[in-house]
Amino acid sequence: MNNAAPVRVGIGPLSVSEVVAVARRGAPIELDPDALAAVAESRDRIDRLAGDERPHYGISTGFGALATTYIAASRRTTLQQSLVRSHAAGSGAEVEREVVRALMLLRLSTLLTGRTGIRPATAEAYAGLLNAGITPIAREYGSLGCSGDLAPLSHCALALMGEGEVRDANDEPMPAAEALAAAGLAPVVLAEKEGLALINGTDGMLGQLCLAIDDLEGLMRSADVSAALAVDGLMGTDTAYAADLQALRPQLGQADSAANLRALLEGSEIMASHRGPEDTRVQDAYSLRCAPQVHGGARDTIAHARLVAERELASAVDNPVVTLDGRVMSNGNFHGAPVAYVLDFLAIVVADVASMSERRIDRMLDPNRNHGLPAFLAHDAGVDSGLMIAQYTAAGIVSDLKRLAVPASVDSIPSSAMQEDHVSMGWHAARKLRSAVDGLTRVLAIEVLTATRAIDLRAPLETAPALRRVVATVRTSVEGPGPDRYLSPEIEAVVELVRGGAVLDAAASALEPATRLI
């Protein structure tokens, strides 16, 4: 039984957190009755046009380059079904369950705007799939991010028709007809315009943007924690993070990151031990001193991405649309450019935050730069290699992240006999960002693993109270310094502590409410 609070669709735009709740936590969906009434009203307009002898795109014509072909009334159900079947042409690996659920919720949200001309019963049936935990199997390739995420959405529409493949609530693969029958759901026979309404939106790329924003907002706070651990492990200073220095450059994200670093390092015995005049270092290396600037710039970019996502969540993306005054009009709102750009932008900042983290990892392992720690933080350097190859792993991930930062949205391959002669590639931008988010998580985890060992090696000096909580949390899964041992499981254990928020929660639990991590 799912105990998540229900998400009501149809009263204003969805929020990012509501998308995440349905996609990741299986929150049930409720449809707003007023929205369903608006859906019925716009459907009435479509029904009237369906009886018109003049051709109307998506209602009585073919699609794309076949838009000038008139379709007789007796063949329009076949037209809609053929559209979905032919467009369910994805290939490759299965798309993740949470992504499919997110794009389905967002398509449903657009359907409930009353601008698509779909029947209320069809919208209710689509919600039924989500509430039953039935997840259509969509494939990795098939969307160009223009005319909507066509192939992934078509795989979902195909399941609504009782065709294709799905996974049930227990994640078991099976034919859609079998899953619908087991859930007490009937396949939908599509009417005029409905096939087009079900597949013509930016929902796949937008869903992945919402999920990435949710991940990255937490990871940026985790990056502040891992950086603070490294700064203390390297006997760095927090003087560059002073509020008055940050105020000289009033970038919002930078100020938040610096405030986090100050709070996390407050009360460190390690830092107090080298504050006196005997310390001749004037300033730390950039990877320590400039962490607020890089982390802050990333935060500001995420904030911009959230703004774009919120605007898209308030949109009715379909073609044609039923306007507020009842016209049925072709438009270009399905073009994914606005979403594609910020997906690419996020991949750039992810790569840079990870790159800075890897530089701190390397610094902690180098006896020429780590201020008295053993080479590679090894127990018996020479016999033991310590964390030498953990840095290789981080470096390899960072190299991949730099490739993933190459924009997808600058590419365009014309399609549909040159009718769709410029496309956004937003789906591909979203897919590579998902890989990038995973890579950043892993690099931050390796930094946490490395820095907690460095801090242990500073004993008897202790780190700050907030960071001591992090060290203790890591030690529940990973042993402290000692002879070499099988390292891969330890890295994976810390990856899960970062991904699941345990590292962040541990640090925050030691801070007063007024100084909680921002």
TrEMBL record:
Keywords: Histidine metabolism, Lyase. It is found in: Cytoplasm. Its main location: cytoplasm. The keyword Lyase applies. Pathway: Amino-acid degradation; L-histidine degradation into L-glutamate; N-formimidoyl-L-glutamate from L-histidine: step 1/3. InterPro entries: Aromatic_Lyase, Fumarase/histidase_N, HutH, L-Aspartase-like, Phe/His_NH3-lyase_AS. Transmembrane segments: none annotated. It catalyses: L-histidine = trans-urocanate + NH4(+). NCBIfam families: hutH (TIGR01225), PRK09367.1 (NF006871). PANTHER family: HISTIDINE AMMONIA-LYASE. This is Histidine ammonia-lyase. It comes from Herbiconiux aconitum. The gene is hutH.
